[in-house]
Amino acid sequence: MDPLSLKSLLLLLPLLGCCVGQGILPAGPVSALVGGNVTLKPLISYPPSVITWAFNGPNGVATFVGGTVTVEDAYTGRASLNSTDGSLTLSALTPGDSGDYSVNVITTRARFGETKLLVVEPVSNVDIKSNVPDAIEYNSTVILTCSAIGSSLSFKWINGSAPIVVDGTRITEIKTNSSSVLTIKNVLRTDLVGPIYCTASNSLTMKSTTTPFNLTVYYGPDDVTLTPANPPKFIQAGSTFNLTCSASSLPPASFTWYYNGMKIETSSSVLTLDMIKGYTEAANYTCRAENPKSKRSVPSPAVSFTIMEGISSVEIIGPTGVLIASNSTANLSCQATGGTVGKVDWLKDGKPLGPSSPRVVFAADESSVLISPLQKDDNGRFTCRVSNAVSSKEAHYNMQVVYGPEQPTITARKAVEVNQQVELTCSAASVPPASYTWKLNGTATTTTAAVFIIASAAYKDAGTYTCEAHNIITSKTTSTSHNLSVQGEGTLDGLSDGAIAGIVIAVIIAVALVVVGVWCYCRQKVPTSSPY
């Protein structure tokens, strides 16, 4: 077909198709990749007798007329027309192939269709660049630019796994066909926790940054605190107590310590007692944290305490000689070394010792106690307890007051029967313990123990027994007597254990005999039944 006839046909068929029918191509746009293929197929039910394809108006692409397919020179080798279904296939696509494609078809009637083809370049080379190598929280403005190669691009920003939300005020985004510029004012540490990804896409391809992007946001110091926050009012010198200063900061903060506003020469985050061992007065301690990047310096709350020496040792100095009741006096002195004495307590046998009588007199500072004269009740363990706010120490002194012997007592029966064993026990309160001797009817015996034993009493053992108690230090001797009567066997009131046992056995036997007799009697009275 000559060019003039083809152009005339192309001009005529659209007019005819518009009048007869439309809509035989998809609305579009139809997308295809640069260098790829695309097939545009009209929706017809019968084989066409005439087909014409045009691009951007009257520019012909291919025709089918009179059984012959003709491809325009500009599309030779790249376009093919299927005369059976009317489809047009384009290959080796270029961006210049993008545009409006129309088709006119005559089957049983004339049909017309039009669609848009969009030839896009695939996404590649997605990259993120920043205007700064790092940022300072609250101070810096960060501008991130995501660029990519491709056509009709759209972009999406991801922080870790969550999309970055653009609020239009502090975080804004400017988009172009080839880039997205994300601006973050007064950047926060949470804005760029990372890693940061950028995804570029068009209708056919999508690609993200191959290497995650990370940007360090320096922050702090925040939350500057001291541990412990509430230390004791008094701290014992030489103990393991320390103060720790901590802060949330990147990079880690440096620390400076202050004593009542005066700088302490240490940069450690831990303040030990060795560092402040010369400071013994009550004081406020603070720590200041500084970030070398942000140049921010923030103080901690103050804590207050006093460093106090503990009591090292305590000793009681008391009498070393023999102490005799009613004659001797005892002065107990409590001496402490190291630290400041806060309080002195005296105890005797674990119970508080107080000025219970005029005999017991304490010094004004209670560092000593005078007991005059000593009595037997002063025997025991004396304790001096010295304490201050951080420590407590004790010392002990065992007081032994010599006294006695006091009037002895004899524990024994007053009367026994012959052949019974007899024990007479003598006891007398005495320090040191008394020694004992015995007399019978005024005559000394050979017994020198506290217990006088008669293995088998005889009539000759009756009489007055005298116990004498003697204290070897006081040289005092006291005595007491006890009268013992020896009588014939069975003459004392009351039954012996053997007699009681015999009576019990006899009663049991008698009861048994009565029971047997009653049973036999009842058996004889029972009548015998006649067998008839």
Automatic annotation (TrEMBL):
Q: What is the lineage of its organism?
A: Eukaryota, Metazoa, Chordata, Craniata, Vertebrata
Provide this UniProt record's keywords sorted from A to Z.
Disulfide bond, Glycoprotein, Immunoglobulin domain, Membrane, Signal, Transmembrane, Transmembrane helix
Question: Gene3D superfamilies of this UniProt entry?
Answer: Immunoglobulins (2.60.40.10)
Q: What is this protein called?
A: Carcinoembryonic antigen-related cell adhesion molecule 5-like
Q: Where is the signal peptide?
A: 1-21
Domain Ig-like stretches: 122-216, 221-304, 312-400, 408-485
Q: Which gene encodes it?
A: LOC102204377
Q: Which domain of life is it from?
A: Eukaryota
Tell whether Glycoprotein is among the UniProt keywords: yes
The protein's matches in InterPro entries, at most eight in alphabetical order, are given as: Ig-like_dom (IPR007110), Ig-like_dom_sf (IPR036179), Ig-like_fold (IPR013783), Ig_I-set (IPR013098), Ig_sub (IPR003599), Ig_sub2 (IPR003598), IgSF_CEA-related (IPR052598)
| Membrane-spanning ranges | 499-522
